[in-house]
User: Which sequence fits this backbone?
């Protein structure tokens, strides 16, 4: 079984619509990296968690342009020729090398661009399968470190507004520190330590809060679990007394539902916060992570 449906004609139409939207967004950048409508410098952010950081830190001094449209799968983003042509015009392009091949390729072909790769600040690690896990933002502490690094980079490329970037980053870091405290307190008494998820997106979260991630599929969004993998997870669910299997908003829940049905577990949503849509459990990163904490507390029996 596939963790998400194969591309169909409908998916192709959706991709076309997303591409058209990105053309419209990127076309607003002028030759010096300023948006034609506001005259402010533009920062491009590769996907939602980086867009959120950039928006919070930029304030009113910059315009933040996302390269991944809300609701689109960030791993599979495709950039239009116009978007690629506009990359060198941005004051900064914030990305995570290795997460989105299309973005990596576009930046490699644009030597004049000012890229900011956040992977070093995020301190990425490898999963048990040897694949680098890019989902650093699910650990608020790592996410805060990236916020601080981004503020420093923005201050260096736009020193006139350095004080604002630094000040706003401090506020954001304080909020992320508080969120981390809520997670530490809220998960301290959890009775079930095995966290069964649709795919291996929660390694940093589980490591931070004392859980063991048990993914049905791997880090790659296209990974398909084998029959042996499914049997292994099902056996663990039964033997460890796992009561909840977590699926994701952008993932077909059929696999998790089938596994839950065969083991007597229930299905709940644990959002990897790769994007915010109308079906998300909040309007931004902080709200969704708070909802995630409530889901984990219920699913992992945390009195």
Assistant:
């Amino acid at each position: 079984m596939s963790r998400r449906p194969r591309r169909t004609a409908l998916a192709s139409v959706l991709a076309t619509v997303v591409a058209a939207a990105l053309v419209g967004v990127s076309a607003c950048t002028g030759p010096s990296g300023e948006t034609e409508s506001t005259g402010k410098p533009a920062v491009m952010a590769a996907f939602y968690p980086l867009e959120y950081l950039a928006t919070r830190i930029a304030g009113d001094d910059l315009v933040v342009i996302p390269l991944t449209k809300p609701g689109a799968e960030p791993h599979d983003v495709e950039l239009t020729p116009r978007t690629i042509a506009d990359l060198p015009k941005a004051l900064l392009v914030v990305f995570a090398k290795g997460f989105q091949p299309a973005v990596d390729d576009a930046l490699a072909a644009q030597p004049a661009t000012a890229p900011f790769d956040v992977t070093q600040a995020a301190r990425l690690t490898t999963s048990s399968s040897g694949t680098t896990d890019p989902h650093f933002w699910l650990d608020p502490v790592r996410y805060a470190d990236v916020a601080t690094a981004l503020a420093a980079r923005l201050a260096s490329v736009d020193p006139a507004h350095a004080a604002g970037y630094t000040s706003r980053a401090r506020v954001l870091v304080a909020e992320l520190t508080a969120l981390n405290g809520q997670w530490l307190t809220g998960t301290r008494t959890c009775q079930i330590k095995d966290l069964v998820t649709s795919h291996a997106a929660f390694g940093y979260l589980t490591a931070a809060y004392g859980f063991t991630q048990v993914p049905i599929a791997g880090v790659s969004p296209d990974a398909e679990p084998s029959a042996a993998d499914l049997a292994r997870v099902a056996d663990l669910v039964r033997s460890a007394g796992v009561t909840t299997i977590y699926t994701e908003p952008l993932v077909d829940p059929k696999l998790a539902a089938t596994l839950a049905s065969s083991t007597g577990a229930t299905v709940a949503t644990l959002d990897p916060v790769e994007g915010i849509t109308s079906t998300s459990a909040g309007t931004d990163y902080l709200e969704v992570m708070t909802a995630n904490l409530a889901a984990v507390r219920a699913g992992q029996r945390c009195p």
Residues 93 and 115 are 5 Å apart (CA to CA).
